[in-house]
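Priority: low. Protein: Arf-GAP with coiled-coil, ANK repeat and PH domain-containing protein. Input follows.
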Amino acid sequence: MKITVDFEECLKDSPRFRATIEEVEGDVCELESKLDKLVKLCIGMIDAGKAYNAANKQFVNGIRELAQQSTKDEVIESSLTKFAESLQEMINYHTILFDQAQRSIKTQLQTFVKDDLRKFKEAKKQFDKVSEEKETALIKNAQAPRNKQHEVEEATNILTATRKCFRHIVLDYVLQINVLQSKRRSEILKSMLSFMYAHLTFFHQGYDLFSELQPLMKQLGGQLDQLVVDAAKEKRDMEQKHSTIQQKAALQDFSNDDTKLEYNVDTDNGIAMEGYLFKRASNAFKTWNRRWFTIQNNQLVYQKKFKDNPTVVVEDLRLCTVKHCEDIERRFCFEVVSPTKSCMMQADSEKLRQAWIKAVQNSIATAFRDKGDDSEKLDRKSSTSTGSLDSGGEPKERSLKGESALQKVLAIPGNVCCCDCGQPEPRWASINLGITLCIQCSGIHRSLGVHFSKVRSLTLDTWEPELLKLMCELGNKVINQIYEARREELGARKPQPGDPRHEVEAYIKAKYVDRRFVRRPSDEELRSKVVSLSKQEKRLSGNSEHMPPKAPPPTPKLRPGSNASGQSVKSADSGIQNSADGSREMLATTPSNDSLADAEPAETPPMPMPATLPPPSPCKEMVFYEPKEYSPGLQLYWASCARSLPDMAEALAHGAEVNWVNTEEEKRTPLIMAVQGGSLVTCEFLLQNAANVNQQDAQGRGPLHHATMLGHTGQVCLFLKRGANQNAADIEEKTPLSIAVEAANADIVTLLRLAKMNEEMREAEGPYSQSGDETYQDIFQDFTHMASNDPDKLNRY
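Result:
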C-alpha cells in the first residue's frame, strides 16, 4: 500500500511534511466538494427517474384503456395488452434500478462523506490546535531569560509536554490521512461498480423481456402490409356501397316512395316491421312523442333510445285489431286496440301508415297460423322489458395499496422471503395461490399463465379487502407444505437467491405445473379428511354467529283482483313490481316527464296498499351422506363449506376441479358450498381460481341465488362485482331480486337494484363505457369494506 504521508517525516515536522499536509488537505477539500456534487446529481437523477416512471405508468394505463376500448378487435386488444404488460415490466425494472442507484451512490457515498471525511476534519482541527500550541511553547522557551531559572524550567516543561502531545496528535492525523486516501479508492469504486452492475442487470432484464416479445412484434409487422391492403379494399367497397345507396335514395325521392327508407325488415330475427312513429300518450295532456317501434315475435314494442329496454305495447297481436283513425286532427294516424287498452300512433306519410297497418294485420294472421295449436298460451304474460345484467366490469375502489398491503401480507409466517427461491423482501404476490414472490420468480409465474398463477404487485397495485384477507389466510408456509411435501424425499434442490433463471424456472414449473412434489393422499387419508371437514362444517353450522339472523317472514297481503300466485302485485313503498313470471322489475321512484308522457292507464293501475310475497323456501340443511367414491373434488366441496382455505388449496393441488359438481347433492358446486359456509374469503379464493360464478345446481340456483336466500350481503356484493347474472331464474321462476324482496332484505335489494341501474346507465352511455355511475361505485365499495372489515353491520335482517 502506498503511504501518502510518511510517519517518521511527520515527527520531524519539516517543511516537506507541512507542504505534503497542505497538499493533502486541499485534495480532501476538493474530494468532498466533488462527492457532494455527485450525490446531489444522483438525487436529481433519481427524482427525474421517478417522475419518468410516473409519466410512463400513465402512458401504459392509456395503452390499457385503448386496449379495453378495442375489445371488438381481438388483434389490437391482445397486442396492446401484451405491449402494456411488457412496458409495465420495464417500469418495474426502472424502479429497481433507481432503488439500487439510491443505495449504491447516494447512501454509500453520503456515508463516506459524513463518517470518514468528518473524522478527517476533526483530526485536522486537533492537529492545527496542537501545532499552534507547540509554536507558542517554542517561542516562550526561546524567550526565557538565563538568569531566571524558574521561568526556564517552566518553559522547558511546557515545551516537553507540548512536543509529546504534538507527536501523538500528528501521528493520529497522518494515520487518518493515509487511511482516508486508501479508503476513498475502495468506497468510490465499490459504489460505482454496484451502480454499473445495476445497469447491467436492468439491460439484461430488458433484453430478455423484449426477446420474448420479438416473435409477436415480427408477426404483427408481417401482418401490417396485409392490413393496409385490406383497409384500402374495405374503403373502396364502402365508397361503392355509399354511391349505390345514394343513387337508390335519389330514385326513391323521385318516385316519392318513402316506405323503404323509413323501415327495415329482418325476418331472421322475427322482425316484421320497424321504424319511427309518433305515439300519443294517455295522460291528460295527450302529448305526442316520437319513438322507434318494432313488430317482432308477434309483439308490438317501442324504444326511446337504442339501448333502452323495449316497452311492450301489445304482448300478443292475436288479441288485437288495427284500424285507421280519421276523426282526429293529425294526419296518417292509426290505432292498435287490445282487450285492455288502445294505442294511437301516427306515421310520417300515407304510404307508411298503410305499410304499418298491413304489417300488423299480417303479424296477426301469422300468429294465428303458427300458434293455432297452442291456444292455451294466449294468457302468456312474459315481459320483454327486463334486460340482462352483466356486472363483470369491476368498479374502481379506493382499496389498500403500497405499504399497507405489503405490511399486512409480509406479517404472515414465511412471507418475508420469496416462496420459491427464498429471496428476502418480496414485492410481488400470486393471488390465486396466496404466496409472495421476488421479481424474478414473479416473471416466471406470469409466464405460466393465469390458469396457474395470477401475479400482482404488493406495492404498485390496489388490493381489495377480500383479496387481502385471502392472502393473509394462506401464505408461503402453508402453500409450501402442500406443493413441496415430497421435495426432500425426491432429493430436489430448492433454488437460492442468485441462481440462474433457467434453473429457477424449471423448479417452479415442476412445482406448480407438474405438481411433482405434491404428496398424493391414499384413499383412507382422503376419506378421513372429507369426513373431518363435513363434521367441521356441522360445528360451524351450529354456531349462532355463523349465519346472519333472518327477519320473520312478512304476512302476505294481496290486492283485490290479484291471484294467489302474486301476479299484477306491486309494492308502492319499495318501488318493486312483480312481473307475471314471478321476477321483479325495478321502478324509478321519481319517473321522468317523458316516462309520464308515455305511461298507459293499464300499465300503472292505482295501488291502495303495499303488498309482499311469502319468503323463499330456506336452503336445505347440509347433511353428510356416504358418497359412492372419495375424490379431491369432494374434499374441495366440503372444505369450501368448512371455510378451510388450506384444505381447499390442498384439494386443488391434488387435481380437484374448481367447478366440480356433486351429483349426489342436487349438483351443488364448491362455490355454492362456500356460500353455505358463509365465508367471503372462501368465495374469493374459488373465484380467483376460475370458479364459475353463474353455475347452477339442480334447482336452477347459482351462487347469487344462495347468497340472497341466506342473507349474505357481502357475498352478494362480491358475486355482482364478479359478473353474476342477477336475472337468472331458478326452476320456480324466482330471481335473486324476487327472493330478496320476499325476505325483506333491504341491503341486498339495494345492491341488486343498483347493479341493474348501473348496467342500464352504462348501456345508455354507449358500447365503450366501462365505469358506470360513480354513486354505484361508492356504494359497492362501502359494502365491500363493510363485508370484509365490519360484517356485523350487515347482519340486520
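The chain has five domains: 7-223, 260-369, 400-513, 523-549+616-794, 555-613. The first helix runs from residue 7 to 12.
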